[in-house]
Amino acid sequence: MKKASKELDHRLVKYQDISMHYSKLDERERKNYNNLGGLIKYAKKLTHELDQQRDKVQMAENIIKDLQQAGSDNIDSLVHLLESYQLKQTQTEQEIKKLNQLIVLKDNEIVGLDEDIHEL
After folding, report:
1. Stated pTM of the model
2. Maximum distance among all alpha carbons in the chain?
3. Which residue, of 33, 61, 77, 109, is most buried by count of CB atoms within 10 Å of its CB?
């Protein structure tokens, strides 16, 4: 409570000091002083707007980073999927070759059996 009272007293003294100096200013200096107050308000407004824009930019950068990472993850998963399909294709082609060789062997056995049957 004492701290608040001291702060209030300090501000009152400061206000009285400013009022005393303000009353001594001529009209041109008063206009400049008032303009200075307007400039201070404008600078505070700009600072606030810049803070908002900075927050928006940071949010956009985070979204872009997340999308890039998600895209990278998707590409990695697609590449992995493609590699697994290529491996399955190779295995299937080998299986087809083995089956074709088996067909040739079985055809030869059938031809041989047909010849044996005709000889009988």
Report:
1. 0.41
2. 139
3. 33
